[in-house]
Amino acid sequence: MSQPIVIEKHKSRFKELARAAIPGGGNLDLCLTCSSCVNGCPASGISDMDPRKFLRMVLLGLDEEVVQTPWIWWCSMCQRCKRACPMGVDIGALVFMARQQWSRENTPKGIQKSCDLHLEFGNSTGIHREDWVSLCAELVEETRQQEEDWKDLPAPMDKKGAAYYLNQNAKEPTVEPEEMIPLWKILHEVGIDWTYSSERWDAVNYCMFSGDDRDWETVVRRQAEIVNDLGCKTLINTE
Amino acid sequence: MDPSWNREDLKVTCQDPCNLVRKGLGDSVADDLRFVIKQVVGEENFVDMWPNKSNNYCCCCCCGGGYLQSGFVEKRRAFGRIKFDQIQATGADIVVTPCHNCRSQIEDLCQVYGGGYRTTHLWSLIVKAMTRKSK
After folding, report:
1. DSSP H helical segments within chain B, as ranges?
2. Which stretches of chain B drop beneath a pLDDT of 70?
3. Most buried among A50, A100, A115, B120, by the most CB within 10 A?
4. Which of B58, B64, B99 minimises the CB distance to A42?
5. In chain A, where are the structural domains located?
């Protein structure tokens, strides 16, 4: 009787790391190579890579290639592959783990810069506190003056005890500040007692994409502290 | 809500943000999104994209990728091509993009590939149809 082929033990650090880190082990070994993930993935074919190839690379223990391929920055971790997979293999989580292996210096600059600005200024586009406060004040004042129906429109800042805390994607005050006004109008009309904060008010968190869990957590915790200090019961995340 | 502002019967579709729907609250929030849009633009003016809800295609903005910030412009646009074709197939005049990053990407795809649609925040559209009890 023939014997199975014996392959010299090949220690894959990445695979073991992933198995331990992904809830339920990520089902990695259950891949049927059916390619449902490939067919449903918008990043398939970009630079001749796809989710199945990436998973096979992990399972074959090609650690070096896994943590070096820039494809992990072209996959958006949208998890459509996991949804399509009959075995529920979590390829998005693997991609995230591969991102975690990249040093801060090599992480795509735009993502890292947005994260760094967030850590330094409390928002991802680096708006200074006084600019944010005066922008909101000016916008609401203009609206009150120009629109008869909205003379009583509020845009509260640091209002202690407001029922709802509202954050805002920093892109809006940066590139299209007037787009915040309709949101204020809706909240006012339905009688919501809300507030912004003058600091750490951003709704996005690019540190979530850079692969550094500590930065990600720092951003979330800092905003949570603000919400608690204001005594708001509910956070409305606008992004 | 009064959809009569939509006198030209503009056709409207929507992007289901991956973080909100597939990775977040699931099909129920996608149904809520459609309910609101139909109230705002008139039921007959809503055209759904395919595939949609939890099975939607990522437009590749940012749903976990940070693509818009990452600088890989050519790759990002190649990724978004499928989404662009899906939007064009609806024939919609307006795409509701409840996520700002989806909006930036879908707007960019429209300009690059020569689309015939505009994008909007959900809240900007709601205000158009909002009738005020207090006035």
Report:
1. 27-41, 67-70, 73-90, 100-113, 122-129
2. 61-70, 134-135
3. A115
4. B58
5. 13-100, 128-236
